[in-house]
Amino acid sequence: MIVEMRIYHCLPTRLPALLDRFTSITLGFFEKYGIEQIGFWTTLIGPSNHTLTYMVKWENLAEREQKWNAFQADAEWIAKRIATEAERPIVERVENYFLTPTDFSALR
């Protein structure tokens, strides 16, 4: 198992738009492509409260490449993402990490 941690750094005041996009659009595409989420978090205390952190679970990098690339290439997803940013961009930058559990991890 591999866990992908993604951190979306939003432009000021744009976190609510990102949360809405995940709730109303993105999670439906995750389901369509079999992308299994572990959880989503906003930052309560930290360097910025304009971030969304989430984790998804993959069997291996090949599964991630196949499913993520299909999701990213979906014409309907692309159109809906563009529409949510018609007025102005939402995400300033994305950090991406691939994590593997230790032998003593509760999640393996």
UniProtKB/TrEMBL annotation:
Q: Which Pfam families match?
A: NIPSNAP
- InterPro entries documented for this protein: Dimeric_a/b-barrel, NIPSNAP
NIPSNAP domain residues are: 3-105
Q: What is this protein called?
A: NIPSNAP protein
Q: Which organism is it from?
A: Paraburkholderia phenazinium
